[in-house]
TrEMBL record:
Highest taxon of source: Bacteria
Signal sequence bounds: none
Entry's Gene Ontology cellular component terms: plasma membrane
Pfam family, one: AlaDh_PNT_C
Domain Alanine dehydrogenase/pyridine nucleotide transhydrogenase NAD(H)-binding: residue ranges: 1-125
UniProt-recorded name of the protein: Alanine dehydrogenase
Coiled-coil ranges from the UniProt annotation: none
One GO MF term attached to the UniProt entry: alanine dehydrogenase activity
A GO BP entry: alanine catabolic process
Species whose genome carries this gene: Bacillus cereus
Amino acid sequence: GGGNAATNACDMAIGIGCSVTILEVNQERIAYLRKQYATEEVNIIESNTENLERTIKEADLFISTILIPGSRPPKIVKEYMVQSMKPGSVIVDIAIDQGGTVETIDHYTTHDNPVFIKHDVIHYAVPNMPGATPRTSTMA
């Protein structure tokens, strides 16, 4: 998704020199994001199965930022997609609080033990991620 969590992650990634791809379903939001990041190395594309498969296969880090207020998000990242990722790549599922969007995340992790590995991919699935830095996240 291309909402607030995605744009904040994008800004951080740009700041350290990463190439970024944002997948978004809403055409108006895509147009807005393309204007917002017109001068940056950010690829904003329509979120569909084909684009997701291609993007996740190439990603070193994939952050799922889907939020559907009042609903559980769909499990859009299928196990076969995770299996196609490069060994050592990372998936962060920000939607884990609402049930998550990644099929291979079958349990929560904690701030004390934040990751597990499945299919040679590092999975981060900590609910309430801002809880790690409550003072800073409250100010934001």
